[in-house]
From TrEMBL:
It comes from the Eukaryota. It comes from Ilex paraguariensis (yerba mate). Keywords: Membrane, Transmembrane, Transmembrane helix. PANTHER family: LATE EMBRYOGENESIS ABUNDANT (LEA) HYDROXYPROLINE-RICH GLYCOPROTEIN FAMILY-RELATED, OS05G0367900 PROTEIN. This is Late embryogenesis abundant protein LEA-2 subgroup domain-containing protein. The chain crosses the membrane at residues 12-31.
Amino acid sequence: MSDYGGAGCCRCCFSFLLTSGLTTLFLWLSLHTSKPVCSIQDFYVSALNKTLNSTSNHSIFFDLKLENQNIDKGVYYDAINLTFYYGPNISLPIANYTVSGFHQGHKKYTHRKDLVDARGVPWDEVFRGVSNGSVAVFRVDLATTVRFKVISWKTKRHKLDLKGNVKVDDSGKKVETKGIKLKNGGQDLGCYLARLRVLVVVSVLVLVL
């Protein structure tokens, strides 16, 4: 009789641990969020187009892509601030631009395209350089905060502070054919998130087994 009672108790404990572990895993997967992917899809500097043979137009055209890769979570963007720099000098921006805040549904992407008027660039010098086969390097910084919509509530604000270098040749266009992903200044968070996912899964398995 005591053996039967002990076996029943073990089954109850195992069932409780299994349910608790699976519930924990489900909640973690449900609440886990991925930050938006931001990239420069197009970048054109008219003053560096050799065929135009003129540096009088100081405008820069850009195409910013914002992608929400979450399967079931929307994203609320606050105002997105873009800062443009030329060369290694990041103490003096050459242009600024602000994208108004908006909501983006899950698995959606959007483009923001516009022109900015660059200032403080030694255009004649840069034009000679690209005409002789070198490339001009511009930097784009993106700063904003986002909230995620999980079911019917919104998370706290998460900061996005990203940057990326854009190389431009004598066509005035960016050298890279693919979009340039803007990344954070520190180490890539993706690696840490992947390790965290593995740790959670292993912990749940240890708990239920």
